[in-house]
Every structure is written in structure tokens, then in C-alpha cells.
Amino acid sequence: xxxxxxxxxxxxxxxxxxxxxxxxxxxxxxxxxxxxxxxxxxxxxxxxxxxxxxxxxxxxxxxxxxxxxxxxxxxxxxxxxxxxxxxxxxxxxxxxxxxxxxxxxxxxxxxxxxxxxxxxxxxxxxxxxxxxxxxxxxxxxxxxxxxxxxxxxxxxxxxxxxxxxxxxxxxxxxxxxxxxxxxxxxxxxxxxxxxxxxxxxxxxxxxxxxxxxxxxxxxxxxxxxxxxxxxxxxxxxxxxxxxxxxxxxxxxxxxxxxxxxxxxxxxxxxxxxxxxxxxxxxxxxxxxxxxxxxxxxxxxxxxxxxxxxxxxxxxxxxxxxxxxxxxxxxxxxxxxxxxxxxxxxxxxxxxxxxxxxxxxxxxxxxxxxxxxxxxxxxxxxxxxxxxxxxxxxxxxxxxxxxxxxxxxxxxxxxxxxxxxxxxxxxxxxxxxxxxxxxxxxxxxxxxxxxxxxxxxxxxxxxxxxxxxxxxxxxxxxxxxxxxxxxxxxxxxxxxxxxxxxxxxxxxxxxx
RNA sequence: GGUCCGUUCGUCUAGGGGUUAGGACACCAGAUUUUCAUUCUGGUAACACGGGUUCGAUUCCCGUACGGACUACCA
Length: 511
What we know:
Elements: E1 5-8, H1 18-33, E2 37-40, H2 54-65, E3 71-72, H3 88-100, E4 104-107, H4 111-123, H5 147-155, E5 161-164, E6 171-176, E7 180-185, E8 193-195, H6 203-213, E9 218-222, H7 229-238, E10 247-251, E11 254-255, H8 265-271, E12 280-281, E13 288-289, H9 299-307, H10 322-328, E14 339-340, H11 343-355, H12 359-372, H13 379-389, H14 398-403, H15 415-421, H16 424-439, H17 445-459, H18 463-475, H19 483-490, H20 492-505, H21 507-510
Parallel strand pairs: 1-2, 2-3, 9-10, 11-14
Antiparallel strand pairs: 4-5, 5-8, 6-7, 12-13
Helix pairs in contact: 1-10, 9-11, 12-13, 16-17, 16-18, 16-20, 17-19, 18-20
This protein binds one RNA strand through helix 4, strand 7, strand 8, helix 6 and strand 14.
């Protein structure tokens, strides 16, 4: 068996889409499992669509999710350079070979001429107007023009492209690892441009040439490439590389959560979830888009989630570390159908991973947010807080969100709780309770509770009836973590002062 | 429109000629929790449709419908 060499080959035209991350992940899993090589190649042959910063963004994104590049842009390697724009001089010779052997030709048609051809064809009722074995005979190319005219056109530097001469009648077939045999008749394939007039190769040529040169063994990419895969097969054949053709695996696409269509940034915006791994600011429009990282997703959770989009281990195990994924992965267990993206599952994974972290690590998240807010908090206290609200969080920032009342006393109180629970019974208990607490040397969860029970017992009121009022006075809210622990964390003085404040502020309502 | 690919609970999926069609997320209910959350228990819920083949089809074949991708000197 040949050495496994896979590549992730994005275009630096903007932020890396989450679907791209998944493609990279599947490549990576295969590479690691087979002791192969993961290559990053940047396909920047379209100068017009180049976006500054995009390449760096891709690199950072892959690093964040834990996909390590063995060879390619950013790390180098034996087949450098790995940026197609820097490989520009290499492609012409292959195009030339195709031309010389009669498998490609020069075309001099202008944009207007191409438009006119398409219009003429569609006016004549042709189903799919394209530059192909029939129409090329009516166009201006080295197949129709006299040889000396072609020569002189080339000599004076007339703008031209190189097109593949697709055979008229031939069954082109490829064996996709996911879809099995896919057959397309060559009459359905058009004479694709291989070399553009600016001297750059198109995706099709560059991709095939580079995959061959870099000894790629498996091409794992999105299903959007399936229609052009037969063209690539033809290219391998004409270039004489059939023996070295990689195995193809076309991944099912990520679709919108609701309705139909493929997942887009618009859907993500509308439904309030990220679609890019990291925050991204478009350099031209300055438009900002949120990233999974900044939204609080843990890379290991995202990886686990992404791996299950189109793949499954065949067992009931759901939680997989990267190493476990590497062991369990197989292309054979990748599904064929498109996948509706459901952010709920991603959140669930996040929750699972977040909760499994030790309190010390979780405390760092809280401490970090507190630092941003200029709030001082000891590590021990942070650990205590985190352990109390651990079971109620999905994202790291939830520790702050749900624990903020511990640092910022309430200045307003939940109306509905006030209406329901703030009555003279409650204020009586609170007044007495406050006094009793003051006498305590130190307040902790245990004596906070026993003291409260004493007070309610002497006043002849059920503890349960006033607990919500106590919570309200301390946090301003009707819900939250265990009250006794909250009091222990706040400490005696804070508890007393908050009860006092609530008693003052809400006094009016009692009367 | 044409070409190609696809279709099992709302979602991700397992399965496969004879199964009570399994799991997870989500949802709902009950228990626990003085609240909410957690946790536990239970529940609703699927083989797109029509023809074949077969003793028998959700599973195999063919159509239809529906969905998706592609249809650029973009990748």
C-alpha cells in the first residue's frame, strides 16, 4: 500500500468556513491514523479574489482546533513552495505537454465572443450551452485557425487561454470511496480552461498537477467537487499519471438547519451561531463575524461535533478525544447524504467537555473575565464559585454571567418574585435572620442554614415560604445556585449588607 | 433547463430481505432539588411515494417526487 499523503487545500478568499474545518479534520484523521502526512496547500490562483489575512486566519484556525500540519504553507517541506501563486512557473509545462500531444488547445475568444456563443446556443434551445467538442469548431482557437495564424497570434502576445480538449464520446468513470462508481459521459463535460490569460492555472490544472507532484494519495474534499472530478480523471489520464491518481472521497455537504440549501453565513447570523472558527473581520467591508472560539466553544468539543457530521463510529460512544477519533475513524463509515447543521448538538458537546474539566481550570475562565471587569477575586474563591455553578454552564463565559451577582450587589429586583414572595412574613424573617447572622463569628453554608431554620422556627414560619425572598434580597433574582453556598461565598458582611439594602429598598411594597 | 449526487424519528444517525426499526441531541412528563439548572426514570416521534423481484421488502431493482451540488479565464 502506498504512503498516505493527504492535503487540505483552501483558497484564501476569506474566513475559513466551518465546513472547511470539517474537511481538514477528516483529512487529518486519515493522515494520523495511517501514519501519513497532512499537507496544507494554499490555492491562491485567483488574484482577484485574494483576501489579505485569510491565509493567516486559516493557519490559526487549524492550529486552534488541533490540526497539525506536517508539510505545507507555514512549515515548509520537500515539495515547497506550497502556495500555488509561487508555483506559477511550474504549470505551463504541463499545459504545454497537453497541447503538444493534442489533448489541449489555445483559445483566443474574447469575453464578448463567449457570451455571444452562449446566447446563440440558448436561443437555439441548447440545454446546456458550453464550450465543447461541437461548439469549439465555431470558435477562435488553435483547432479552427490556420497554424501560422495561431503562431503569430501567440508571438504578438494575444490574450489567450489553454483549454482541455475533452473527447466527444467517452465514458469517464471514477471510483469514489464514499459514493462508489460515478460515471459521466464526456459529452457532458466542457472544454475547461486550464491556463488563464494571466498565465495562472485554473483550479483544475493546478490541483491535479500539485496533487501528483506532492504525491497525494487521497483527495478528501467537499461534494461540490464531484461534478468536476471526471474532468480531473481525464487530466490524470492525459498527463500520463493514471497509475498515481489519488483515491477520491467526496464528503456530504453541510446544509441549513431549517429548510433547504447549503449552510451559509446568513443562516448562522440569523440563528445566532458562528460559522467561522475564529472571529473574523472582513478587511474590505470591515464587517465582523463571530467565531466559535470567541463564542465559548472549546476546540475539543467542536472537533468532536464536527467529526460526527457525516461520520459515526458505529458504536454508541459519543465523546471522542482527537486521539480516539484518529483510532476510530474510517472513510467507509462516512455517510452519503447532506447534513443539516444543528447547533444544539454542538452546545451539548461543549457542555460535556466544559463540565469534565477540573475546577482549577474552570476557575481560570472566571478569573479571566473578572480581570477584564477589573474585579479582584482570589483563586480559592473562584474555585469555590465555579464548583457551585459548574452544573449550569454551557460556555466558559457563563461562569461570569451566572456568577456576576456574587460580585455586583443587585440594584433592582425581579418584579415577579417581589410580587409573589416579598411579604411581611418574609421581611420579618429577614430582619431577624440578619441580626442572628451578625452574631455569628463566621458565616458558612452549614450555619447559614441552621441559623435560618432557628429563626423561622421561633417565628413559626415554614422555611420554604421565605427562601425565595432571601434569594431575592441577596441576588435580585428568583433562580440560581444553592443559596447556602451563595451566602458562604459572599461572606457575613456582604450578606448582612445586602439584606439590609433589600429591606430598605423594598420596604414600600410591604406596606 | 441539463448533468451528477442523495432521501430511516424535528436533527445527527445505527441497522438491514422476516427486528417491538436501536442510540444521541432536541422536545414533553414524572422523581430529586425549598427555586432554576443538574441528575434519574419514562414518553412522543422515522424507513418519501409508486411499481416490480420475493413466501416476505424499510432493506434489492426501476420509476416518480423531493432535496442538494455543479453548470466562470472562482475555487
